Amino acid sequence: MRMHSPTHPGKVLREFLGDVGVTTAAKHLKVSRARLSRILSGNAGISADMSLCLSAAFGTHAGIWYELQTDYDICGHRERNSRRSSRSIGRRRKEVRRAAVTSAAQSMRGMGLPSATVSFRNFNIKD
Description:
Elements: H1 9-17, H2 22-29, H3 33-41, H4 48-58, H5 62-110, E1 117-120, E2 123-126
Antiparallel strand pairs: 1-2
Helix pairs in contact: 1-3, 2-3, 4-5
């Protein structure tokens, strides 16, 4: 069963802020507007110190914010690794096909067939 990707903690924070503007919230949290904006847009994560600021401001446990970020990071890492392994499997298939075509061409040459052209899917080997 495939699970959905967790929401970036910046989106959760946006809901907590409600109608409060970024500048006002940044002043209240005592962080720069740019830093808060990057978190809200999903371009930066919530660090341990930001977790403490948010917990103090909203009366939540600091671990909640940090766990949201960790879950998001782990899921992203898992998805990136999955894409990498799919690409390496594809490359390996191409290598196996290429080896099979090369072997077939060499066998044909070994049988004394003149200047053979062997084609297997997208791999062409011409003598």
